[in-house]
Amino acid sequence: MASNYQAPMDPEPMRHALERLGLLQEGETANLTPLTGGVASDIWKVDLPDQTVCIKRALHRLKVKADWFVPIERNLYEWQYYQIADTAAPGAAPRLLAQDTETFLFVMEYLEPRDYPLWKHQLRDGVTHSDFAAQVGHRLATIHSYTAAHREIADRFPTDAIFYASRMESYLEASARAHPDLEHVLHTLIRTTMHTKYALVHGDVSPKNILNGPRGPVLLDPECAFYGDPAFDLAFCLNHLLLKCLWTPSATPGFIACYKTLAETYLSGVDWEPAAEMEARTARLLPGLCLARVDGKSPVEYITTEDDRELVRTASRLLLQQPVTTLDGVSAAWRQILGR
Questions:
Q1: Answer CATH for 119-338 from 3.40.190.80, 2.40.37.20, 3.90.1200.10, 3.30.420.10
Q2: Which of 223, 289, 322, 338 supports an S-S bond with 239, CB 3.0-4.6 Å?
Q3: What's the pTM value of the predicted model, to 2 decimals?
C-alpha cells in the first residue's frame, strides 16, 4: 500500500558517528544541516571546527510515496564506486574521508554549490552547454572502459539484487504492471540488462547527481552500482535530457543538442564491444526508462500535468512497440510526438 513518508532527520547519530570516526574530538562542536533532494539516504552538511564535510547514511525505506525498500548495504558499494571512478577519471568523485561499515554511512568532502553547481538546476534554468554534456559522456565512457573486463572489480560488486530492487523492479517491472500489454518487451529489457556483464555501472547517472565542477563532471550517489550493462547508465542519463523538454520547453533545442553531443562523445569512447551494439541496446532501453518516469515507483516531480504524462506514454509506447537501433532515431521520434 502506498503511504506518505518522511524519514526522521535526527542529528545525534551523525554526531556520534563523527566522534567514532575521529573527525569530532571531545569538547568540540559541530553544526549539522540536513540536505534535501535525495530519497534514499539521510545526508548532512557538517561544519566541523577545521573543515566542512558531508555525511551520508543509507535508508532501508526510501522517501517516496510507494513502498520501496532497498538493502542499506548499498552504502558500502557506493564508497567503492567512488574509489574506482576517481582512479579511472580523477575528479569524477568527491574526496572520501571516513567510513563506518557498521552503521552504513560515510563522510566525504562537501562541495560548495557556488563552485559545483548542480547540472539539473542549470538545465531547469535553460542553461544547455553542449560542451559540458560532452564532458559527461567522455567521463562516463572512461569509467566504463577502465572497468570493462576487469574481474577483480566485478568480484567487488555482488550487487545484482540491490540493482534489481532499485532499478528493474521499481522502474521497469512497475511500468509493466501499469501497461500489461508491454509486459513482454519490458521483461525482455530487464533480462538483457541483468545478463549483460561488461563494466561497472553507476546506476543513477542523472543531472540531479552530476555537479559541474572546475575539473569536469562529478558523479554523485552511485547507490545501486553493479557490474553489468553500461547501456543502462547512458540510457538513464539521456532519458533525463529528453524529459527536460517538458520541464523547460523553450530550451528544447538545447536539450536535444546536449543529448546528441553526450551520446556521440560517449559512443566514441566505447572500446569493450562494437559501439553499434552498445547504441542499439541503449536505444531499446531508453523508452522503457522514459515510461518508468511517469508510471514507475519514482515519477519525475516536474512532469505534473496529465497531458504531459500522456505525451511521454505515447512516445515511449511507440518506441517500445516499434524499436529503433540508433539514439538519433529515439530523439527524432520524441521530437515528432512533442511537435518540436
A1: 3.90.1200.10
A2: 289
A3: 0.91
